[in-house]
Amino acid sequence: MARLREVTSLSVYMLAIDWANKLNYSVDAIVIGAFLNTNAVAIWTVGQRLADVTQRLTNQLNDVLFPTVVDSDSSARMDRLQAIFVQGTRLSLATVVPMGGSLILMGGSLVRAWVGPEFAGAELVVQLLALSVIVRVGNATACTVLKGAGEHRLVAGTNVLAAIVNLGLSILFVKSFGLSGVALGTLVPIFMASTLVLFPAGCRRVELPIRRAIADAVWPALWPAAVMTFFVIATRPFVPQTLVAVGVEMAAASLVYAVVFVFFGIGTVERRFYISKARELMRRPAPVQPIVEGA
Q: Tens digits of per-residue pLDDT, 165-209?
């Protein structure tokens, strides 16, 4: 019965976390429809879809880490938890920063090339939501560590409070700032919850000083974005306003980030480790399809 209560309690908190995360994004369209108009909802949807795709493509790592966190916590492997926290945060940021950063830098061109100039109002929405995704994915490892190491109540409470604040700020800002205000209402609670509550709590849970976590996990993945930014600013004026050309520019920007991160952002040992793992993934054979008789 004790084990059943433990599992049931965990499931309830996980459900609260999931619903709070969905509320952070889903409620915005309702607020826009109530206070603005259907055209504004259509413009918002463009930015939201781009942000959703970015998040789905860059947040796969943390779902894989959850069982490892639980195993390390149950065996009291603090050194392993620290390594998961640092490496997971760094790789999450190194995945989301180039995609989200290029979306911020090329958001206007992408929107115009994709859906036309009449949706130009989505540019700032795309940029603010992309920044929200960067913060959320970058902090996802801290949330995974907290959930897997017995701090799921804190994660659930923080996410529920952030969702409520999101709703309140969106209603408050929509009249004065329009769609940008709604996007800002999404960004502010996510940023505050991540930087002031969840990331510091994750550092405490793995007994890692915040300064060291920032130096080892965050900074190496952030500063290469400056090089990528300079590249985009220098080349953006020459990019034709077509979907293919904008996509190539964003891919080139991400490649610039990757080169700087791999060869200058991390040390030699880590570089060799990451490259070896990447080669293993590329060499891994495809699963053999079973042969069905009579097919």
A: 999 999 999 988 999 999 999 999 999 999 999 999 999 999 999
Q: What's the angle, vertex CA 264, arms to CA 51 and CA 106, rounded to 5?
A: 30
Domain annotation covers residue 84: yes
Asked if 131 and 99 touch (Cβ cutoff 8 Å), the reply is no
The domain total for the chain is 1
SS3 (DSSP) at 266? coil
Lowest-pLDDT range of 26-30, 158-162, 222-226: 26-30
Q: Quote the CA–CA distance of 76 and 88 in Å, as a whole number.
A: 19
91 located within any domain: yes
Nearest alpha carbon to residue 119 among 35, 184, 50: 50
Question: Which domain does 149 fall in, by range?
Answer: 2-208
Question: Which two tokens mark 158?
Answer: 């923080």
The half-sphere exposure of 218 on its side-chain side, counting CA atoms within 13 A, is 18
| pTM of model > 0.90 | no
User: Is there a domain that residue 101 lies in?
Assistant: yes
Burial call 170-201: b when 16+ CB within 10 Å, e when fewer: bbebbeeebbbbbbbbbbbbbbbbbeebbbeb
Residue 286 lies in a domain: no
Contacts of 119 (CB under 8 A, 6+ apart): 42, 43, 46, 111, 112
CA distance 40 to 141: 34
What phi-psi label fits residue 286: left (phi over 0), alpha (psi between -120 and 50 degrees) or beta?
beta
